[in-house]
Structures are given as structure tokens and as C-alpha cells.
Amino acid sequence: MPNEPKLARPMVGGIVAALIVISGLVFFLAQPRTPASSREKKPTTPLDRAPEQPAAAARARGGAAHAVDPPRSVTEKIASFFARLEQGEIDGKAMAEFRRELLASDPRTTVLAIGEFLKSGKDHATGESFSIAEGGGELESAPTFRVWLLDVLGVLDRTASTGEGAALSRLVLAVKSSADEWALALRNVAWAEPSGGGFLAAKFREMITHELWLAKPSAGFLEAFDTAVFLRDPSVMQPLEQLGERPEVDRAAAVALDRLAEANPLGVMNYLNQNPGAFSRRPMVRADFFAKADLSQPAQRAVLEAYLARADVLLPEKTKLVEALAAPGSFVAETLFSSAAPPVDDDARVAAVERVTAEWIAARRFPELTSALADLQRQLRTP
Amino acid sequence: MRKTLLALLLCSPLFARATEFPAPIGENTARTYPYAMIGQVLFNSGGPYIATGTVINPRSVLTAAHALYDRREGWSTNVRFRRSTYGSTYLEQRSARRLFVLARYQELADSQGTASPAAFSKDLGGVKCRSTFSGGSTARWSVDTTLLTGSAYNIALGYGAVTHSGDKLLYVEPTEGFYQSYKAFYENDSIFIEAGMSGGPLFAELNNELFVAAVIVSGSEQPYSGGVRVINGAADRFIRDYLP
Fold first, then answer.
1. Can you give the pTM of this predicted structure?
2. Contact residues, chain A, for B109 at CB < 8 Å
3. ipTM score of complex
């Protein structure tokens, strides 16, 4: 008997928390959205897309937070600021000042107040663009108040670690109402749940294949491509490879794929060897992915050698790889998710390339590439 | 009647905009600072190509992104920089050790097509070379974009290889200011940019010195126009962090 309450309380508490979260979700989804100039129309049947496990996520973070009312002051400040935004009284400078004020306030209360506002469904255009701040990670400006709040929410919750930011972001990811909101929601979940790759990968695939967003890609939609780099998951290469209709989407995919190959060279090379059809239409780009190999690492060297031994890979592609080893390229970007490529120890990389290619030549490992390998060695020695 | 008269006036040569065309700057000038910091960027991208670059730091060259990356061919290979090329001579050559492209996702929008050479046409590229350039001189850069839009003296330079041979440094001086066309991409309708000049500097004068204020990235003939990627805060950080 003394043990009974110990067992019962968590069960009852969990059920109550789940009910509260589920009712919050139903309330969130049922709210009418205030039309704003930069918002897209909601899909006509949003309720058929349920979040993966928002209630579970909230529980895991001790998320009975939905049931707690934030102090009126923060809630009222947000409501008052929003009213002034609707009246056209707010400019970029005022947004920046209010952002500083919110970030300096108690994170837990502010996160709850932001959550309350987001659940209201209200929104208004800010007149600003979707712009990433210097150094990446955070926004400098946002096109709508909701996107702006989602950014503040993620930044606050990164330090407060309440789990509430991720839980609210999962609610946003349950309905395809705005690509810009999805970009911030993906980032917030990524920050709060670094191991939640499965959920993020699924949502990322949903996002980049959503016809409405693909047809008119917003800045946030394009920035969200860096989710692939954050995930370091080679399986997202397949949907990214197949996005080729719109030039800006194709180019964003190119940057994301190249950065992904740099972030996880071994995983990407293994994926490409295991899926011979992948990038067969862009063989020179595939060669570039292999050129990111660190030849001082035995596993990476072995996978690269397996690629060079492939019969389905033609000589021009292999030659391109050898040439690219002399001076590989990197895309540099300040992004929502991932940091820039780490500094490369060029001397160590070049030394490894010289040593390994000399071994290949001496062992006549890849005879059809002898000339290209000799050229590479010459090139590595010239100033 | 008044409409007809107005139309005739608008079409008359009095209202035609004068376009400045690139011309050789001369070997003597090409070999003096800061022009001597400019050189040919030679590279392979499904075939041999020429672009232009500027020594921006002791072992690095600033150029256009599309000289270094193409959506179909991937990263360029066999990238070399020949500083102060003029005619059949150049002062020194350096080989690339690393290539960098500053490509922010959202700035990839408003492109002109993947099959077009204009893909990545609004981005910056950088070449980190195997060794430093002799003498230690480098061009200086400025993040003051008003140097392009105001009344400061501007001069665009590069190795045009269509109506010119591609081995002489060409220059063209805008007669009016640049205007912001899309984010960091600025245009000027008073100049024509010849293919091969891509990656070359747009020098702007400040306190009697010339600074790289932008990099040539595109040109158009219908109508005549030249496009540059300005050196803004992101470009400044790109140069400082990746191009030593």
C-alpha cells in the first residue's frame, strides 16, 4: 500500500498532462488565422496531418507547461506590441528593441507567453525580410510576427531548456501553413532535440516535396535546406537530388548536398557506393563529393578506392575526382542550422593526398588513372 | 499629336543612353598598384575557361563564384591565377589549394537558370593559393556600398575575351552610379561588361585610394548593363575567415 501513491501519481499526472496537451493541439489547430499579406493560405484539410508525438514530447520534457499561465505582464507586453504592429506603429528598430527585452526576461515565463500568443493564430506582416543575423543561427529580421516569435522562442528555449519551444514547434510542423514558420520550427526542434533526427528528416522531406512551397520558394524555405547538413543523414540525398524544377531550389539543393558531403564524407561516400544510380546524371558533382575524403583516414580511403574501382563509373568522372583532390571546394554560408565548415588543415590533407596517390602509382592500383595521378602529383608540388 | 511628339523625342538620339565599352588599360598602368593585383583566373569546367581575380590577401584571390562552381560540372579544377597578365607575359602564377564560394541559401533565389552560365552569378568566390604572392602587396577592400551608388569614382577591370583577346587587362568607367538590383547584386546601365571580366574588381575611390568595392559577376547586351556583387558585411567576413 505505501507504494501505491508512488505508482499512481505519475500515471494520473501523465494522463492529465497528455489530455491538456492534446486539447491544446486541438485548440491550436482550430484557431482561425488572421490573414496577412505575406502568409500563404492554410491547406483546406489541415487536420488530416497529425503531429508525430507532440504529447509525448511535452511529457518527456516535463511539459505540463501548457497548463501554467504565464504572468500577465509578458503576455500583455506581447499583445500590446502586436496591437501596435497592426496599427503600423512598429519599425525594424522597435522590433530589435523588443527582441532584446524578451531575450533578457525570464525565459520560462516568456516561452509560455510566446506559446500562448502562437496558439491564438494571430499574425501580421512586419514589412521586414527573412534575414539571418551575422554568424548564423538567429534571425536579424522576419517577415511576420509569428516567424519573429518562433525565432525568439527557439533562442530562449536553447538556454532555458524547458522543452516547450520544441513542443510548440512540433505543433507548427503539424500543419503546412507557412514555409518560413517551418524553417524556424525545424531549427527549434533541432536545437532542443539533437538526437531527434528521425522526426526532423521526415519533416524535412515533407517540406521540400510540398508542391505549394516548391512552386514559390520563400527565403525561409530555402534556408531550411540546411536541415540536411545538420542531420548529416545521407538518406536525404535522394529527395534533394530529384529537386530540379526551379533554379533557386536546385541551387539550394546543390549547396546543401555539397555541405552535407563535407559534414559527413564517409556516410555520403558509402551511400553513393551503395546506391550506384545516385547522381549518375551528374557524375562530375558526384566526383566532387568523393573529393572531400580525408585520405589520412583508413575508412575514407577504402571507400574512395572502392569508388575508383567501380566499373559503372566512367573514366572522365574518375579523372575529375583526381583533379579535384588538388583543390577541393567548399560552400560558405551563414545558416539557420549548421556552422560553417571547420578550418581545414591543408598541409595534412595535401600530405595525405601525396602519400596515397604515390602508393597507388607505385602499386599500379588504377592504371587508367596513371596520367591523371602524375598530373596531380606535379600540381601539388607547384607553388 | 502631343503623344506622337513625345514618343519621337523619347526615341531620338538626344535621349539615348551612352554606354561605355571596355578598352585595354595599357601595360604600364596594368603593372602598377593596385592594377597589378589583378590577374587571369584559368580553370577547367568541362573545358578551359578564363575569368579574372584580384589578390586580396597574401595568398588569396577574390573572384566570381561561377568561375569556381557550375551546377553541372561541379567544382572547377586545375585553377591557376596569373597575376598582372598583359599580352604574353605575367608577373607570377599560383595554383589553387582550396576553393570557396559564398553562397547564402536565400540569395540563390532570383537566378537566371541552371543551364545558364548565370547560375551562381550573384555570388563571390575565393581561391586560397598554395603559396603567398611575392612582395606582400594586396588590394584593399571596402564595405561602404555608397561608394558605388554615390558620386565616387568607379572603374571596373577584367580580361574580356569576346571582342578582345582575353590577355590584356580591360577597364570601363561608369558614367552613372550603380543601383541595388537584388540583395547584394548591383547593376549599372552605363557600362558593358565583356565575358571573361567576371571576377574582376570594381574599384571605387576613397581619399585618393582605390578599394575593391564589388566583384564583377555579370553583363548583359539587351539592354547594355553590368552587374556586380558588392562587398558587404557577409563578404567582408568571408574574406577575413576563409581567404588568408
1. 0.84
2. 217, 219, 222, 248
3. 0.89
